[in-house]
Structures are given as structure tokens and as C-alpha cells.
Amino acid sequence: MRALHAVLLSAVVMSAIVPVGIAAPRVTSNEASLERIGVWQAPTNVTDFDDASDVRTAITDGTLTRATSVTHDDTLVMGIQMRGFTDIVSAANGSNVTEQFQSAMSTHGDLLVEQTNPPPSRQAMQVHVLNWTGVTVLPDDANDTYYVVVDLDEARITRGEDGDRESLDHGPYEFIVRAELAADSPLTEDRQYAVAPVDSRKASLETAPDGKVHVEAGSNLTVSGTTNVGTSWPVTVVLSGDDNADTSANESFQVTREATVQPSEERNRHYRRTFDTAFDRETVPITAENVTVNVRFAGRSLLDEPVPVALADPRASVTVDGIYEDGNITALSVNASLSVGGFLVLHEESADGTVVGHTKYLGSGEHAVSVYSSEPIDADEVVVVAHRDSNHNEWFDGPNRDRAYAEKDPDEAITFGQTRSSMPTETTTASTPTDATITSSADDTSSRGATPGFGVTATTFAVLIALGVLGRR
């Protein structure tokens, strides 16, 4: 037998798994029971299977994975559990188990592998597994199971049942596998059948609730997702964007990365394989348009359509007009500019102190709002910090999830100074903190596209409010 090739079957056939290593009760009467069918494929580096033990081992260790769309390079492995069928096979005509199984199934039922995605006006292809070469049957008597191994490059494939011979050169192709015991067979009173699909290859990407993949200027972009492509196979992640006609530079680009499919770590979701890869921080021009990410396998897209990528250049400025009390609750009047939206958050004592209040979600742009503390607090222990909506759900999930606007170097995100007099109403642009504001060092934005409302020096990320020395309104 040739080397084999593997991909993964959709989770919809989980119920069709043939038990491995569990002995089924033997049927001693003349009746037979068709229990279930499972379909796998094997990767190209798998050697020939000598017996059912080799197949069970390959299923257990993930070398054999559930089948998806196939080509002529693939080999299907079908596991058919039929109680009470062992003696029937032993008594059938044939010089070996493969011929005896083919004869017994042809006499008492059928084993059909039929295409489910034929072109318009063309008959579906059929893979003949009961009367042709390229088929090997390996019995697993302890489990009343037969593993039918089909080399698709050698098996007989026709258009319709008796049409011209075809090959699977231009795949991938989707099939349905059906085992049947006929109603007129003396082994059963009623027709019995079991079905498993060889479905299309698919993938999905991890996105924010808005359906986009988000990347920030100067940050690496990690793309993660799930697929039913088999373990250890490479999928190609394609990141691309169009030129921005409003700039003099040409920002169009296309970059690819290969990601190896990994087995799922979730015990109850064995067929939800995962992959991830990273693109370098300088890959995506901040002014590029229509940036998308796609996932491809064997030259075909695994997504229904490419997923949009949202580019962000996170910058913010914050000033405080004054403070007042609403009952026992302290409130701050704040002016803020948020390039990618987010929240204004009150912390105790320092920017990483306990959160004592925050605004609702604020979209990108200019805002004049009041920020309320959730409880009475000493007036000289409040810091207001601009936070991003890092997971893009428009809900403040705490400072560990929705991070503060920061410089490229996290160790220099926020620099505090002393507040000695009343707050100004405009952001200070001096390179060192004045006696009225707290600023961070400015990002170098000379090579970035301009963002309305954000100058090179408008990068104040937090303001320390010494409320004890401010007059209350």
C-alpha cells in the first residue's frame, strides 16, 4: 500500500466513532446488527497498516484523523462495527479476509462511497469498495469491527454507478459513506444503515465581538483559529491590504505565514483542532486600507470570506476641569481624546491602584464627561487614567483586561509629577511635567498618518489629581 495522507472529519460525525479497545457483546443468533461507521484519513508519513491493532493505535495517537474532502493522494479508512457478522464473513467466498468481506457485504447489503458536491448537470462520483482493487480489509474480531482501507489512487471511481472511470485529480471532493444491511437479508428483519460524511475542510478565526481581528501600530499581530484539517498539517495564513490613495506611499502588501495544526486540548472537542501564527510588528502599514486575513489549505480558502483587520494607533490625552461632590460621591469633570475609544477610570493613589469608578464605553474622538467614584474616597488619592477597550466588547472588564493607553515601552507607560495648583482646562504640551499636569513622554509619530484631534505632543495618558488642594465646586 502507498504512503497515506490525513485530514480531519467535521465534529458532526463524533457520534459515529468506532470504539477502540472495548469488547462488544457477541451475537450468537443468526441476526446481525449494524452499529456505526467512522471515517478517517492518514497522513503521508504513515506506513502500511498490517492489522487492526495498527489502525487502533493510529486513531488513539491522532495519526489517523477524521476525514474531510479528499483527493487522489488520500487514503480513506472506514471503521464498520457490525455485531454478528464475523461468521458470515468467514463463510463467504474469497481467498482472503478482504475478498470474503466484500462478498458478504455485496450479498447482504452495500457499502457506498458517493460524492456529495458534483458539478451541475453531472452525476456524482462513486468509489467502488466491494468489487475492485485498492481496498484492504482488516478485521477487529474483539470489537466486531472491520477497518476498510481504500487507496483512492488505485480504487475504481466512476461517474454514477456504471459510468466512465474517473480520478480525484482536481479535488478536494466531498463524499458520504453509507454501510447498509438490506431488508431482504436473512440477517435482519428491517433495513439497517449507518452514515458518515467526508465533509469540506473549514476554519474559523478568533475575533473580537465585532467580528474583526484587531492590531495596534507597533505591535505584533497573532492570528489564532480552529480547523478540521488534520493534526500536523500546515495551513497558510494570508495577511493583505490595499494602497491608500490619499497618501504618497504605496501601502499595498501581502504576507503569508504557515501554521501547523495542533490537536485540541479540550477532551470533549477532539475534532476542534487549533492553529496560530504571528506577524512582525512592522508588517502592517498603519495607513493601509481593506486589511484582511485569510486561511488557506492546498490552495483553497478555508473561510467563507476573509476576516477584516482593524488597525489602531492608540493615543490619548486627558485633562481635568475640576471636581465636585454629588452627595457623598466624588466626581471629576474630564476632557479626553481617545484615538480608539475606551474608558476613563478612577484609581486610588496610583495608575495601578484599586479601581473606584469608571465611565461607560466612550467611542473614538473627543469627550467631555463626568467620572464618578463608586464610594466616598479621600480627595487627595485619586488618579484618572484612559483605558482602551482591549477585547472590543464595549464593557469595562477591569484594568488587567482593558489595559491603559501606554507608550511602546510598558515600563515607561505613565510618569507622574506633583500637582500644586488648580487644574488647567487644556492639555499641557511641555516635554516635562508642569506644576499642574502629569504627562507621559510623547510617541514619535512623525512617520504615522495623522489622526484628527491628536498632535505629536497630545499623549497624556493619566492625570494625578491631588483633590485635597483643589477647590470643590
Structural account:
With 473 residues, the chain is mainly beta. The chain has three domains: 188 residues, no CATH class; 110 residues, Sandwich (Immunoglobulin-like), CATH 2.60.40; 154 residues, no CATH class. It has three helices and 26 strands. Strands 12, 14, 15, 17, 18 and 19 form a six-stranded mixed beta sheet that branches. It has a five-stranded antiparallel beta sheet with strand order 2-1-3-7-6. The chain has a five-stranded antiparallel beta sheet with strand order 8-5-4-9-10. A hairpin with a 2-residue loop joins β20 and β21. It is elongated and about 95 Å long. The N and C termini lie far apart (87 Å). The N terminus and C terminus are likely disordered.
Quick rundown:
The chain contains 3 helices and 26 strands. The chain is mainly beta.
The class by helix and strand makeup works out as mainly beta
- How many beta-strand runs? 26
Radius of gyration equals 32 Å
Low-confidence stretches: 1-29, 408-473
Whole-number average pLDDT?
A: 76
Helix % is: under 10%
| Annotation field: number of helices | 3
Looking at the structure, what is the overall shape?
Answer: elongated
SSE sequence, one letter per element: EHEEHHEEEEEEEEEEEEEEEEEEEEEEE
Separation of termini? Answer: 87 Å
Strand content: 35-45%
Q: How would a crystallographer describe the biggest sheet? A: 6 strands, mixed
Task: State the domain count.
Answer: 3
